[in-house]
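Pasting as-is:
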Amino acid sequence: MNDLVKLETHLHTCEVSACGKVPAQEMIRLCLEAGYRAVVVTDHFLPGKFQNTAARDAFLTGYRLAAEAGAALNLTVLPGMEIRFSSGDEDFLVYGLTEDAILHLPDSVCEDGLPAFHALCRENGWLVYQAHPFRPKLRVMPACDLDGIETRNCNPRHDSHNDLAQAYADHYGLLTLCGSDAHQLGDTGAGGIYVPGGVLTPHGLVDYLRRTPHPAFVDTQD
C-alpha cells in the first residue's frame, strides 16, 4: 500500500456537532499523529438547524477550521456531512460535497426525506451511505435509497452490529465504508479507508469510491 494514504471518513467537531467534544484543529492534529493524510469532516446536519444560507454557512465552521489546520500540517481536509431527516433518527454520511454545494442545499432538505435527497445526490454526483444502521432503535433504509453502508463503525461507545451491516451490504450489493466516528479524545485512529493520494478532492474521492466499492479499511479493532 505504498501508494495509498489513510483517510478518515467519519469525524465530528465540537464547533458544529453538539456531541463533539474536541475542537476541529485539535482533531486534525490528532489525525496527523495517527498517520492520516486526509480527513472528511462529517458534522451533524440536523432537521430544523440549517434551513437558510446563513445557517449552512455556520455549519461549515468546523470544516473550515479543520481545513485551516490541515493546510498548515500538509493534511487534506474535505467537506462532508452526516445528515438526518425529520422522519427519524437515522444518519447518513455524504461524500463529494463542496462548500458551495452545502451552501446551496434546499432549505427543506431535511424535511424532504431520504428518497428525495438520494435523487439530489445522483443529480450532483454525490454518494450517500447510511451510518451505523444496525444500532439499537435505528432502521436500516431500503437499498434503493442508498449508495452504500458504513459496514465498520469504530466508535467505542456504541455496539453498531457491524456484522449485520456487512451482511446487508453484501446482500444488496452496496458500497462499503469504515470510519472512526470520532467525537472525543481517544477516538481518532480507529478506522477509515486507504485511498490513492491523487484522489483527495471531493470529485476524486467519490470517483474512487465508485470504482472501488469495497476499499481497504483502516481498522485497529481487528
